[in-house]
């Protein structure tokens, strides 16, 4: 039962300073109605969770079939990553090269959906690291363990091959990438290994709720044709030259008239 906070002050002029019994009774009844609404909302949340769990199981075979079909298409996932406006913003050029070995992406939600999920990155043999699967796991703070109310995340330790640690290389690399980035310089593997702020992990949410749900829309994103700016600049220069010529001709005509 919810408890009533401080009641609104009654108009003492109309009530003579005495409590208004009709208003007090109405407030108590409203509070009871609100308790019923809260109970129904909680029950609805439980029912929605059950439905979502049911359809997660029904979707799983479709996702597995899609993953098998994706294997027929070279560089499917790295292309989808590069074409995604937010995810591509954290991809360094050498990381893009590494992600050519990404053969499968998989999002696995926990049985209790509200408690968290995992993102699995499956890799073919590549020159950068030994791992076949890299996993980033999110616990959203609904468990019963100590400190379980605090969201947390973990990620697989990357077994870099000698001289191929992209994190070390990128730290020593000057920031010359022309891609637009956030004010905080972060790359894909920076994101993967960083578990300091799981609550505000926008990249994980984009992968789980956007890229994973429909990667085809990013793989097939059409090339945007941009008109070259040089043509516009040339036209402007030409227009200025025409105006200059006209002004010059006008001055010569005036000189002839004076003669």
UniProtKB/TrEMBL annotation:
GO BP terms: nucleosome assembly
Sorted UniProt keywords: Coiled coil
InterPro entries, per the entry: NAP-like_sf, NAP_family
Superkingdom, natural source: Eukaryota
Coiled coil: 23-50
Protein's UniProt keywords contain Coiled coil: yes
PANTHER family for the chain: TESTIS-SPECIFIC Y-ENCODED PROTEIN
UniProt name for this protein: Nucleosome assembly protein (NAP)
